[in-house]
Amino acid sequence: MSLKVAARANLIWAAAERWGAQLLAAAVFTVLARLLDKPVFGIVALANLYIGFVQIFVGQGIGVAIVQRKNLEASHLDTAFWINVGMAVALAGATIALRHPAGVLLGSDEVGPVLSVLAVSLPLWALTVVPSALLERELKFKVLATRSLTASAVGGVVGVTAAFLGLGVWSLVLQQLVGAALTLVLLWSTVQWRPRLRGSRKAFADLAPFSGSVMGNNVLWFVSQRVDQGVIGRGLGVEALGTYSLAMRVVTLGLDSISAPVTRVAMPLFSGIQDQSERLMRVFLRSTSLVCSVAFPAFLGLLLVAPDLIPLVFGSKWEAAIVPTQILCVLGCVRAVQTFVHPTMMALGRAGVYMSLFAVSAVASAAGCLLAAGHGVAAVAWAMVIAAAITGLANFMVLSRLLHFSPAALLQALSPIVAGCGVLALAVVGVDHTLSGHVHALVNVMIQIGVGGLVYAASMAFLARGLSAELWSTAKPLFMKSGPI
Predict the structure, then answer these.
(1) Looking at 386-485, which runs of residues are DSSP E strands?
(2) 286 vs 250, 262, 271, CA distance in Å?
(3) pTM of the predicted model, to two decimals?
(4) How far apart are CA 263 and CA 265, in angstroms?
(5) Are residues 337 and 289 in contact, defined by beta-carbon separation less than 8 angstroms?
(6) Phi/psi at 139 (nearest 5 deg)?
(7) Tens digit of pLDDT for each residue in 88-100?
């Protein structure tokens, strides 16, 4: 099977998993946002901030190391499994014991009890690291897709039911725990591998250098991507964080739906051509263009319709999230351009280089958010945009040297997409100017989306016919029945 055929085949299932999960998450999140108050989302966002950081030390980058390693032995899997589980149990116990000081550190006493329950998710997640990495290494994205979708659906039903029963913050907690537990059960019912009660110093030594670099990258990634929430939660309160979390959630759902399927497929596929730098360069540039051809118009459209869309979907109580959502749409575009930087660096075995780049990102994000905190949520959002742009510039300067391409080549590849987005913006603004005040807001939004989509598609067919054809050939199997892949 050629690289292109393998990429498309696995992309279908990776996209099915991600899009299905995101559709479910969007539906569940919409219902929960209407049922629950802003502080509830702020409290859980702070708790997840802590859990997400601790989770980095549970996984230790071992899952990525398993996927990336060419020669994998049973001793590597056994050692990785027991290290992960042992670390998870220790950190879960420490979290429960230190829940009150952690809550004070995060700026809310209400976070402590939530942390003590969410700590259970750490060992649940640790038990899935190795089986999930094995399935990903073997490109079994269909299996991962069906299991993930099932767990997301059941967790969502539990969360919504709990919210209807008036459980408040615990509805979000139950949603996460049920989803994590079911994912664990479904993954282990799929893989044939079972751990043996043994460990190997040699296996640990084989995995440690790469996984350690990945873990370092993950720590810096966490700071660069999540420092905004910590600054807002501690400095502006849980209600402000709840508002910002909704805006970030909306944008993240869109970005994950577009980029997550392809990055998951990219890591093992790019690793297979890591010794062919010219081919990897071509694949990187084309893949980036394909992602941006979807992400740019999606985020531009969301930015333009947000004033009507946010109150329609989530209710008028969330109107304060409109401006942060619009600003974070710009962030979504900046991050979309960098979609394949991480899998390319990992495939090249340059985790150490990438860690240095993430240090730049972490410093820029932390400094920007701290300086902006006193000026409100919107200022913090702009700080994240500027930090992401600085990071992107540094990423492409380094990557252009590793893959021997000129940054001008990337700008040339993106220029027709930017032009098409300009035409889209003119069309959407024109529709809104014509219909606003004359039709219901929902009708206005739907017409704006429809006209904008058609105008953009027509523009791209004229400006970048080859790119449009490739995008359609990749996406076509997702919308039409076809034979077995």
Answers:
(1) none
(2) 27, 12, 17
(3) 0.80
(4) 5
(5) no
(6) 60, 35
(7) 999 999 999 999 8
Among 430, 439, 475, 168, CA closest to 304: 430
d(CA 158, CA 163): 9
Q: Which of 128, 172, 134 is nearest to 37 (CA)?
A: 172
Residue 79 amino acid letter: T
Q: Is 104 helix (H, G, I), strand (E, B) or coil?
A: helix
Domain ranges for the chain, please list them. 3-479
Q: Which pair of structure tokens corresponds to residue 343?
A: 């899998």
Interacting residues of 61 by C-beta distance below 8 A, sequence separation 6+: 210, 211, 212, 213, 214, 215, 217, 218, 351
DSSP state for residue 439 in the 8-state scheme: S
If you count them, how many residues does the chain have?
A: 485
Q: What per-residue confidence (pLDDT) applies to 67?
A: 74
Cβ neighbours of 479 (radius 10 Å): 7
Kindly state the DSSP code that residue 480 receives in the 8-state scheme.
S
The tokens for 322 are: 């409109």
Q: What is the pLDDT of residues 339-373, one digit of tens each?
A: 888 777 777 777 677 778 878 888 999 999 999 98
Contact at 8 Å (CB) between 230 and 370? no
Whether the Cβ atoms of residue 33 and residue 314 lie closer than 8 Å to each other: yes
Residue 286, token pair as written in the block = 């084309």
State CA 161 to chain mean position distance.
26
What pLDDT shows up at residue 265? 64
446-454 LR contacts (CB < 8 Å, sep 24+): 448/301, 448/304, 448/305, 449/301, 449/305, 451/427, 452/297, 452/301, 452/304, 452/424, 452/427, 452/428, 453/297, 453/301
Query: What 3-state DSSP class applies to 349?
Result: coil
DSSP 250-319: HHHHHHHHHHHHHHHHHHHHHHHTTT-HHHHHHHHHHHHHHHHHHHHHHHHHHHHHHHHHHHHHH-GGGG
Q: Residue 465: is it exposed, middle or buried by C-beta count within 10 angstroms (0-12/13-18/19+)? A: exposed
CB neighbour list of residue 25: distance below 8 Å, 6 or more residues apart: 152, 156, 253
